[in-house]
């Protein structure tokens, strides 16, 4: 899963509200005259106005998390371009317990017709570090409430109701060993958060609500940095694990290469590549007008599959069948632009862009009927 993209949503609004200074307002805040609460409010305002993009040390965020993670604010990359893309911030509440404060803030706006539009409601923690208040990720505090078990390269975190499955945990470790071996990289230790429902994970990370929430509960996952978050599949969600273990080692690749490889090796949303290919085949049979010569213009097929999973996976599979891991490794380093991707298909599969529609429909048929 990629960060939710809001370029489309944003274009609905006039972009005039996007300014560098993040507008902060407050709901009724209890104890707002309290000196300590005032300090916490000021800290949050200062942080929102600070320049996080330069990745330099941020004096409003705790040093410990900054030391451990380049992207120390885990919620920032949940949206594209960023959680801090310019939505006004409305602080809903500030709660305190034993010197630890919890800020609940809404990122949203009021549209011209008066309707509110809420991007997310996010939680932050504030605690003193070396005598002064600093912000912390909600995850750092919330994960203490969960159980954890370490198996091999993976620190698993899960809710108390979950019965830990060692067999699946071993299977995930074997997957890590295999792919790291195939791609000549050293396996790295990762944190793996699992729950029955992805929204439990979102709450753990600090989101009470986020745009895109809702719909039928189905397996869902997300990878970032050295963490995998997934709902609905227990200890074995290999797709996202591919992203955390391999992606950073091959930065010069198109998004479809990454998603295609992750789906080829690890399926997507709990279904293997074959399932996605069958679904895509059935759909495209009914839609002869869709031109796969422009496949990179296609996005979601439906809420269960996307073209970059199914067709991206099919292309990865064919390249593997043709040239094994050696060719796959070249493919993983074939450039980031759309043109690079089309060129890579021509280079490794011998298919020109103008023949892609015919080729992919034929290959889909062959796979779907297997
Ligand atoms: Zn993915």
UniProtKB/TrEMBL annotation:
It comes from Aequorivita ciconiae. Residues 1-21 form the signal peptide. Keywords: Signal. This is DUF2268 domain-containing protein. It comes from the Bacteria.
């Amino acid at each position: 899963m990629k960060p939710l993209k809001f370029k489309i949503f944003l274009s609905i609004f006039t972009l005039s509200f996007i300014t560098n200074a993040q507008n902060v307002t407050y709901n009724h805040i209890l104890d707002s005259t309290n000196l300590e609460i005032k300090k916490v409010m000021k800290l949050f305002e200062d942080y929102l106005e600070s320049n996080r993009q330069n990745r330099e040390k941020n004096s409003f965020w705790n040093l410990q998390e900054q030391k451990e993670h380049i992207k120390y604010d885990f919620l920032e990359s949940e949206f594209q371009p960023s959680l801090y893309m310019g939505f006004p911030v409305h602080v809903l509440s500030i709660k305190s317990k034993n010197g630890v404060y919890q800020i609940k803030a809404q990122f949203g706006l009021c549209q011209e017709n008066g309707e509110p539009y809420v991007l997310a409601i996010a939680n932050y923690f504030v605690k003193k570090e070396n005598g002064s208040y600093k912000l912390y990720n909600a995850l750092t505090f919330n994960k203490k409430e969960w159980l954890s078990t370490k198996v091999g390269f993976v620190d698993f975190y899960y809710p108390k109701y979950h019965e830990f499955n060692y067999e699946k945990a071993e299977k995930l470790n074997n997957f890590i060993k295999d792919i790291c071996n195939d791609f000549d990289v050293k396996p790295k230790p990762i944190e793996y958060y699992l729950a029955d429902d992805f929204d439990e994970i979102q709450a753990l990370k600090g989101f009470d609500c986020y745009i895109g929430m809702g719909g039928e509960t189905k397996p869902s996952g997300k990878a970032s940095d050295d963490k995998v978050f997934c709902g609905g599949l227990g200890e074995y969600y290999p797709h996202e694990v591919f992203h955390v273990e391999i992606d950073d080692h091959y930065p010069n690749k198109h998004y479809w290469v990454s998603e295609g490889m992750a789906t080829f090796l690890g399926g997507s949303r709990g279904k293997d590549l074959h399932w996605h290919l069958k679904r895509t085949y059935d759909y495209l049979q009914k839609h002869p007008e869709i031109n796969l010569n422009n496949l990179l213009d296609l996005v979601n097929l439906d809420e269960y599959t996307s073209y970059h999973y199914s067709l991206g996976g099919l292309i990865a599979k064919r390249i593997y069948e043709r040239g094994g891991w050696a060719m796959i490794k070249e493919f993983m380093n074939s450039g980031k632009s759309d043109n690079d991707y089309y060129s890579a298909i021509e280079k490794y599969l011998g298919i020109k862009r103008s023949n892609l529609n015919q080729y992919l429909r034929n290959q889909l048929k062959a796979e779907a009927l297997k």
